[in-house]
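Q: How would the structure tokens look for this protein?
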Amino acid sequence: LKEIRSLHQLGDEEILFLFTGNLAYEPNYKAVQFICKEIDPVFAKKNIPYRILICGGGLPGEFSDLAQQSKSILFTGFVDDILLYYKGCHVFINPVSYGGGIKTKMIDALSCNLPVVSTVNGARGLSQEIVASSLIIVPDHDPQAFAEGMVQASRLKKIPSPEFIDMFSWESIAKRAAVQIGHLPS
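A: Here is the predicted structure in token form.
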């Protein structure tokens, strides 16, 4: 946490929210638009010190104006060590409302004990029972609900369930793979 604060000259009192992905990919691009134009203005009214860090390459030029206008959104661009950000922020936000499949970025965030706020669409593929209380799901396209979820998630100190760790941790995945190819007894 200190490393991220130092790297970007952020205040100690600020809650750090994180979004990451290929920003040229349309579902992520739309999520960044939603963060900038819908979520940030709603969350700003809560009078809670915060920053939203958006990591990823491919950011369209239109966001440079938004980045300069907002005091709370920080576009980092592509980062060499995204794990540093997962471990250095308080909450991962996933307002992706388009596209399909499980969102690997959420798995990575949860694996780093980072609470997640996600839209219904963004949470598809994750079992609420497996992620325990580390995942807050809000309706798609609802900035009020998303901002409330962010407040709620910033108060969480939960860790993923043992079932989540067993299913998604790289160590568990490697062990299952080794058993499948015959390098470990089952």
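The radius of gyration is 17 Å.

The longest strand covers residues 15-20.

Upvote if useful.
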